[in-house]
Structures are given as C-alpha cells and as structure tokens.
Amino acid sequence: MKKLTLKVKPLDMETGRNIVVLHEDDAEELGHFAGDRVTLATPKITIVAIANATRRMVQQGELGTFVEVTEALGLKLGDEVTVSLAPRPQSVAAIKKKMTGQQLSSEEIGAIIRDIVADNLTTTEMTAFVVAEYIKGMGTDEIVALTRHMVDTGDTLELDVKPVLDVHSIGGVPGNKYALIVVPIVAAAGLTVPKTSSRAITSGAGTADVMEVLANVTLSLDEIKKIVTRVGAVLAWGGAVRLAPADDIIIRTERMLGVDPRCQLLASVMSKKLAVGADHILIDIPTGPGSKVEQIEEARDLARDFIELGHRLGVQVESAVTYGGQPVGYAVGPALEAKEALETLRGNGPGSLVEKATSLAGIMLELGGAAAPGLGRQTAMEILSSGKACQKMCEIIEAQGGDPKIKPEDIYIGEKKETLTAPQSGYVTHIYNQRINDIARAAGAPRDKGAGLRILMKEGRKVDKGEPCLEIYAEHETKLDEAIAIAKRYPPVKIEGMLLEKMSSRPRIW
Amino acid sequence: MKKLTLKVKPLDMETGRNIVVLHEDDAEELGHFAGDRVTLATPKITIVAIANATRRMVQQGELGTFVEVTEALGLKLGDEVTVSLAPRPQSVAAIKKKMTGQQLSSEEIGAIIRDIVADNLTTTEMTAFVVAEYIKGMGTDEIVALTRHMVDTGDTLELDVKPVLDVHSIGGVPGNKYALIVVPIVAAAGLTVPKTSSRAITSGAGTADVMEVLANVTLSLDEIKKIVTRVGAVLAWGGAVRLAPADDIIIRTERMLGVDPRCQLLASVMSKKLAVGADHILIDIPTGPGSKVEQIEEARDLARDFIELGHRLGVQVESAVTYGGQPVGYAVGPALEAKEALETLRGNGPGSLVEKATSLAGIMLELGGAAAPGLGRQTAMEILSSGKACQKMCEIIEAQGGDPKIKPEDIYIGEKKETLTAPQSGYVTHIYNQRINDIARAAGAPRDKGAGLRILMKEGRKVDKGEPCLEIYAEHETKLDEAIAIAKRYPPVKIEGMLLEKMSSRPRIW
C-alpha cells in the first residue's frame, strides 16, 4: 500500500463530513481517483476521509484539510500526515451485488445501513444503492432486514405500555390534517399514540407544521416519553429525533433523482413506526388523481405489502385506502389547517375531514381493543361528539407547551387576502392537488404559518359565475400577488357545464 | 417560481464548477434540496449553479459564492443576486427512462452526453446514468448514438488521406508495449496511423508513459495533424486533446464504482478512434487469467460486438483475441518497456512481443491494403526485420521532439536494483498480472520513469532453486524496499513441481 507524507494546509471551511484535498500529482501517485477514501494518520489518531484531487487549492506535497478533519486530528499548518488509499467499505460490494440483481443477506443490508448512518459512503455509492433498489427491487426478506437495520441504527422510544398505536399517511393530498383529530380521539379512549410526523416537503403544510401553530413540536425523545406517559399521546416533529436516521439520508438521494423505490418506501414507513415502539399500526393510502398513488389497484397492492411486512416484523398493520383526489377539508396551510382542526374537534368540521378522521380513528380503536369489531367508527364519532377528543387535544397541547385554552378564532391568519371567483357557471369537476400546493407555497406556506388558502367548494358542487371559490391568505403582499398570479395562470378548480359534450342529431351537409 | 434576493458572500475557494452555498432556511423556502440547481441572476448575467444547503458557512439571507461563480457573475461582498430553483435538465428525464429499462432515442442520448460535457449533471444524476447503463444495458442503436454523440461533443482530427488505420488494446495485461512496434511497422508500409493512447491507471505503464521516455507525447491536435501528415504516424497522449471528452468524465464515475458497462466500453473505444478519423480499426482483446477478459467466449462476444458496431458506424473493424494471461515481453515500467521496444525494433526482441506485434501489424496491413490477404503477418515481419520499422520509429520520435538517434542502452533505468531468485526448483506455472503491476507501481512506475521490473522467465520455463527470476528497478531506495516487500509477500511467479498431484495406487486401509 502506497503512503505519502503530506504537509497540512488547513482550509477554513466546514463541509459537514471528513473531506481533504490533494494535489492531482500526489493523488495519481497514490493511485487515487476523485471521491475515493484515504486513510489519514498522525502518530496518535487515524481517520478515513473523502479525498478530492485538484491542481488549484494545494501544492504538491500539501494536504488541504477542511475544518472537520483539522479538528478530528488536531492539526495545524505544516503538520505532517501520512496519507494512504483506504479500502472501500465492504458495503460497497453489497451495493454492487444488488446492482447485479442478487438478493442481499441481512448482514449485507446491515453493512450498507450502518455505513450510510456513519456517513462512510460517497455520493456516488449512495446513489448506486438507491438506483439499484429502484431498478432491481427487494424481496420481503430484504425489506424486513432493511427495516430492522434502519431501526437498530437509530434511537428508539421505549414505553412501558402495550399496545402502542400509530398511524401514518403516505401523503400526497393537500390539507391532510387528519392526525390532529385522530390522535386525540384514540388517546381519549385510553390508548397510547406516540405520533411523530414530518414537515411539508412539497405541500403547503405537514402535520408537524400544523401542530406547531398550537404547541412546540421540537421535542427530545425524553420529552416525548414523558408526555406520552402523562397524556397518552404526542404530536411531535420526527426531524427532531434520531428515529431510523438512515431513512432521512436515503430520502435526500431519492428526492434528487425524483424516485421512490417501493422497497425503500415500505421500510421507511415501518422503521419510523417501529422506532417509537408501535405494535398496532394503521397505514393511510390516499388514492386518486393528483395524489401519490393514483390507481386503486396500486393502492391495494401497497396496502397488502404493508400488512405482509408488518406480519413479518411481528406487528399488526392495517391499511386504509382513502380518497385523495382532492384536498381533505377546505383549509391548506399551517394556521388555516390548525384552525380547521380545532373547529372539527369542537364539532364544527367539514364533512370530508370528519369522515376521514373518524374512519381512521375507528380502525385504530378496534386495533387497540378499545372498540368492538365493527363499532370503531361509531365509537370514534361518539368520542368526537362528546368533546372528549377536544379535551384530550387540550391536554396534548398543554403537555407540549402550548395554550390549552386556545380557540379557533385566536389563531393568527395572514392578513393579506384575496378571493377568487368562478369565471363561469357550471359544476366543480376537479380540484388539482398539485396546483393547490403550489398556490399555498407561493403564498408563503409552510414557512409563513398564517399563509395558505381555503377552498370554498369541493368536487360536484354547482357554482354560479362570479361566486367565490378560493380564498388566498398571506402574511406579505408580494407573496399574495405571487400566489394570485399562479392561481390565475393554473386555475386549481375546474368548472365545466353539466353538458360536457354536445351531440348533434342533424347530419352535416357538405 | 419562488425567488429570493440574497447578499453575496464570496468564498475564497475554487471548486472546478459553479457551486454556491445557501442557508438551510433559505433553501427550504425555495423548496430546495441539497445538490439541486439554482438559477442565479444579476441585472446583467444569469447562470445555473449547484447549490448546497448549510447552517454553517452563511447566514440566512446570504449566498456563499465559490470562485467560479464569483468570477462568472463579477460579484463582490454584499452584491445582490436573485436566486430561484432551476429546472432539472431534460437529460435527467432520459436518465430516468433508462433506469426503467426503456430504449433511448438518439436525441435523448445526445441530451445526456451534451449535459455531461457541459458539466450540467450533478454527481447523483451522473451516477444514476452509469448505474442504469450497467444494469439495463443498451442496444446497438443506442450504442451507435452514444458513440456518435461522444464524438460530436469533442474535437476531431481531420486528415486529408484515406485509409486511416488505428489499433486499440482494451488492456489489462502488463508490459503491453506492442503499439511502439505495430505503429512504425504499419506506417513504414505507407499507411496512416494517428495513434493516441492513455497513461497507466492501474498498471505500471500505459503506452503514453512508455512513449514519453522517447519523445514528447503531450501534443495539440494541430501538432498531431502536422506530424501524421509528415511521417504517417504519431504516438500521442490522448489526455492532452479533447477527443470524445464525455468518455473521460463517464470513466471517472465507472472507476469510483468499479464497474465497466459493456455499452459504455464499446462506445468509449469507438468514439476515440472515430474522433481521430480512423476508418479501419483493429481491436486487441487480451484474454486469459488475470486480464480484463478472462474467458475466451467472452472475448469472442466482445469481438463480435465491436465488429457489428463498426459496421453500423460505417468503419471497418477487425478484432484480435490475444493471450493476456501473462505479461507481454519481459519488461514492465516506462523506461524498461521503451528499452525493450527499441531492442525489438532493432531485431532483438522477446518472442512473445515480436509475435504479438507482427500479428497485429499484419492484420492492419491487410486492412489497409498494404498486404495481400493472408500475407499480412509475413509482410509485417519483413518490415520489422529489414529495419524499416526502426527507421520509421526514429522519424516519429524526431517529429515528436525526441532524439532520433537514441539507442536502447541510452535509456536511463533506475539505479536501485534487486534480483529475486526462485525459492525452489520446478516449472513456472503462472505469472500473476495484478501482482506484477503492484510491484512495478510500488517501485515507482509510472511516475518514476526508470522504475519497474523485468521478468526473467515466462510460463512453462524450468527453473532451478536460487536461479534469478525477477529484477526490480527503482529510482529511490525506499520504493525499492517497498516493491521487494510486496514481491516477497505476494510472489508474482508461481513455481511448481511437474508432478502436480500424486495419485496413490495403494488402497487406504482403515
């Protein structure tokens, strides 16, 4: 193994991982290619770093060390470091094996996941893994191992109760604030629901963004445990805790490529749920045009995969295929959705939201043994109507440091407002999910909590020309203008006459 | 499309491409993910850059600009730049199409290759392309398009003669200095051979490294054209000219993954040859244990693919499958190989090298019409024996700025030398190509021109215990020691008794 002794030139920049820069001639002498790993040794410490070759930043004989490496090795200008090529991690052989379509053993998957979490893979290797997963897929044994290793390489929530319920929506539908209704209903029945959720990525608000309007969602694992033990539930931001952290890293690569390998989706959802100790899990699969899963057959397939995977992982999974072809409820955006959720808990919610929330909560009540089979939905409805769910939500809000007495009308909504009206009479034949998201985001959501929109009519409604159909809210005038421009250019509500096509009985005369 | 106006914070570092750094909150507001592209606009200029999100190097509202971006936009501290998400290049859709196994059109492949050459793809996208090529492969139509677009996106050598001959060895065998014999033989017959070649990557010397001992190989396209026009041939380093530059970029990713997609190998070789205007091409496929292609069937497949591809590209290709199970000739390392090549041209070369070189030259003479079918080898042998090839080599060396009067004994060989002897009597049953390369590189090759080794016996030779079997040469004592240590630990020459296995006729008695 070739070794070079190079003189340290500290580079005053943090890169987020161990990176060094070599002169191209030195790199060539080592037999090095850009992005390879090198072993860096001082008399006391040895570490591995990613090395880039350049002709610019360092001279031959010099080693440019970014802040992380400079600190890890305690280096200063002119110190000597022995540099040699580091072998590829063993997990790279497993990634190549998956590229050739072979099944990976649990050990091989474990090696990959551990190296991902330890930041031992280069961008190239990480991408190769995701592309191989996407093209070659994984069998159930592999997905089971993938899920387990993703859980094992992160923190876990250890609760002293059984059962532990959880619910996850695979997303893709705007205004999906269901969790703020479902979680308090289920907890009000005495069940335990440690719900973690994400912030919005491409939508106007994620569950964590909405809950943050009412309480603190950035909680440590200890805080989550204390809150769940006291009030039976939490609505926390998953990004604040290290639950299955490999998932978050893998998802970054998936997003850059715009792919979502089925095996990774399954393992991703299940690992987050297992990490909080859930043993009874409901998976909501919104389905319909413009949602993540467009076809009902595909949704059913996915539902079956989740159930099978749960079985193999020793937890009970049920799946609900829900209608995701248009927004749930009317409100989109953190504050507007929080307001709608509070209204719903106070018995004044939109039909679609009440129906979805009580249906999902009903399944969970049956799963957790708090309702007899077939009676879940009815029990959920009773808990909601009785005000017990609302009371539980107040407890959750208080436990998370919010104001338990908050009323819907207390919630600050952006003061810049515009109402868009129907350009013609007819029927609402479609609402475009993606356009709704784009408008809400242009208005400032989810960063501006008060920004977003309210849809005033849903699919099937008759509408007269000039009737209001959309309200846009923003905190800043310029963002309101931007949102209006997008709404006018790409109308989110499709209005058509009932007579979609006119057939003439008179023959044409040429 | 969301836009942010950020204040410039120049970062004093060159990165080799357009890269900026955003604060994570700004990136989130843009809807940005690490490695995404952003459009940067000043009142005068708009460019696209790769953007990384961080919480460390810049504050919210700041845009960290590395040297390339700072210069391209003419920025200084505090200037304002409008930042928005840039769309993915269209070629990314084509890459995703290949990931799903679909055939790409010539337009789609052209978009990918143009974006590779223009440095428009992120590392993630580039990797996805190579992995998709590797897993899904390409049909002949696609490889034809790939080759053509790789040629079109680079410089080309335009010669006014026909035919233009060329030869390429797909490599993997040490000591393969055949080109220094073949090219002058073919040129001595009046044919045109604009030979470009590479430097060593994992071996002790590439053809360019060997030729550099005798003459300058870093030539511009103009210089190559002048030399070829004058003496009929050149032996230049391909890395100094922009022939099919996409290939060089793609190969970097292939090496990082340790994969060599068949379609890319084919297009890579053919594009380099087409770029110099070759219309009659010989492909040498060394085959045997420890070479790139280990099985003869695989070599034949590859040979057929090259011939078919040539046919589709309108050039005549012949393939030669040669024995690559042990080094060609005895010498490995730039100076040692140059010396052996000169000796061979002067009629004093090792049998294996003479045989390989005259066989390949013979095929080329027939291809170019300078020898009747079936008489190529004999003609090549006559040209070599007559001294005409040697004379032509002197002309080439002189044209490339070297000393045409150089004699084998003038070549400087490293003065630190060690001779290793046979540890036992027996027969040489195998020589390990990879170990030979490792020892030569440890001794300093190809960087130290005088470093390398000479094998003193080839496969099949009878050897007595204590008889010299390997000479290692180095320019530096420490490197010699390193090479010796490797040779002792991993003996490159396998010596066994003639009786490989003893069968007993006496039945065992339990």
Explain how this protein is built.
- 2 copies of one chain form a homodimer.
- By secondary structure, chain A is α/β, with parallel strands linked by helices.
- The first copy, chain A, folds into 4 domains: 3-85, Barwin-like endoglucanases (Beta Barrel), CATH 2.40.40; 90-137, Up-down Bundle (Transferase, Pyrimidine Nucleoside Phosphorylase, Chain A, domain 3); 165-240 and 258-399, 3-Layer(aba) Sandwich (Pyrimidine Nucleoside Phosphorylase, Chain A, domain 2), CATH 3.40.1030; 416-496, Alpha-Beta Complex (Aldehyde Oxidoreductase, domain 3), CATH 3.90.1170.30.
- Helices cover 41% and strands 19% of the residues of chain A.
- Chain A contains 18 helices and 18 strands.
- Chain A has a 6-stranded mixed β-barrel. A 4-stranded antiparallel beta sheet of chain A has the order 12-15-17-13, sandwiched between helices.
- In chain A, strand 3 (37-41) and strand 4 (46-54) form a beta hairpin.
- The model of chain A has no long low-confidence stretch (mean pLDDT 93).
- Chains A and B meet through helix 1, helix 3, helix 5 and helix 10 of A and helix 1, helix 3, helix 5 and helix 10 of B.
